[in-house]
Amino acid sequence: MSISVISLLYIGIMLILAKLAEEALGRLNLVRFIGPIFVGIILGQGVLNVIKINAIISFITSLGIVFLLFLAGAEELGEGIKFNFKDVLSSDIELAIPIVAIGLTLYYLHEFSPLILIPLAMTSVGPLTRLLIDLNIAKERIGISIFYQSMINEIISVIIFALFYSNFRTSSIVGIVILVVIIFALGKSIARTLELIEKYIKVREIEFASIISLILIVGFIAELYDFNSAIIALFLGFLLRDYLKDRPHILERLHGFTYGFFEPLFFVSIGLYFVRISLNLLAVSAIVLVVVLGSKIISGFIASNFYGWDKIINSLGTSVKGGVDVSLLITALTAGLISPFAYSFSSLAIALSSLIVPLVFRFRYGKPKVQRKEKIYYAQEIGKVIKNKIVTKDDEILREAITKMTANGYRALVVVDEDDRPKGYISITQIIEIDPSEYETLKVGDLDKYDVNIMDEKSKVIDVIREFRRTEAPVIAVVDKDGRLTTVVYERELLRVLI
After folding, report:
1. Could you tell me the pTM of the whole model?
2. Where found in the cell (predicted)?
3. Average pLDDT taken over every residue of the chain
4. How far apart are CA 230 and CA 433, in angstroms?
5. Is the CB of residue 346 less than 8 Å from the CB of residue 329?
6. How far, CA to CA in Å, does 159 sit from each of 101, 162, 182?
7. DSSP character for 275?
8. 310-364, pLDDT tens digit by residue?
9. Exposed (0-12), middle (13-18) or buried (19+): which is 144, by Cβ within 10 Å?
């Protein structure tokens, strides 16, 4: 049987089992992405050896890393960096101590390599963000500081890794520097070019195709200079964060494209690359795990003295792993720069660390409080189910309306008059055809409005769902008996409360 044919079966099995594993760990209140990794270990040569890495799966995996890191740059690093001296100093300590401790351990185990050391020593911002939200401290001073400490740590680590990945070759370094400088120097020009494509080329999904094309072409250029395409995608995502924030519909498609297909396959493939599970592998992984956790926690504990707040939260928060670090390891492996055994014990140590740190958090501070959702029935009145009055008016500056749409992920926004009666709606499609330089001067009233679907507040939930299906409307306005708006309904929000 040909590789292309058997790969269809492999990818189908990997995809569904990855999602089932994510669901299983989610129900146990554990880190979800660990599930697919263990699925890969079991299916691959680590245990059963029923699915083997081939050229097609390897190619899809490499694409998965690229798109994952692009979104990481656009979202995890998308808030910018506040160069607070304490945060910079703390992040340096939280990287230096683990590098020394883990480096000595790897040297003792005869497995030393900077391409293993850096991923093991760094902090991952993606899983940290989820943890801070669960603990309800993401917007508090301590949560914000931990985020910035970890973000600086991650960026420094990626740059150091990139230098070792290129083996410090002068030609590679010069090429990399030129490429990065060009990307950042032409950042606004790249965004404007994408905007011109949107404006003059009207074929379906041209915006989405343009982003994908840009990521792949820039990745190709990076590889020509012996630089990693995934790392350059991280920088590119960071550069285009504002462009994507103004276009939530593109970001939503990228999410579906990446998290619905590439992410689960990527995490399964992490396990597929493992060597046969043995006592020696488990013993080395356990040693590395203890050193990684110990050095990360100690360094975070020391750094917390600069702030005077809870030392345990700071030390555990800056010890979170399991995001970009694993991507870097698999990048080094597929490039033949580290051995399969070194990759296996390092990835296993990171995976176990990703499970342990959140569990310790919950043991110390309790399980995150989650409000029990009241069951919603299709026969209930829509006015009692959805409470949303995020709307706009004609005299509102267009930028303010865009902010409301992007902050909530809306594709449309209902426009009301002074008496709160719906006048129509504006859509994201209209906005992307307008020059962004005019966002601050135009008002909502300057845009033509689409007719908005209006329903009575006593309409049933099932009636609203049917209306969405019948009309494919982006939003429905719900009014009282006097025609005044009581709530606006988006299909995705409605389905979310029903699940």
Report:
1. 0.69
2. Membrane
3. 85
4. 31
5. yes
6. 20, 5, 17
7. -
8. 788 888 888 988 878 888 898 899 889 999 999 999 999 999 998 898 888 777 7
9. middle
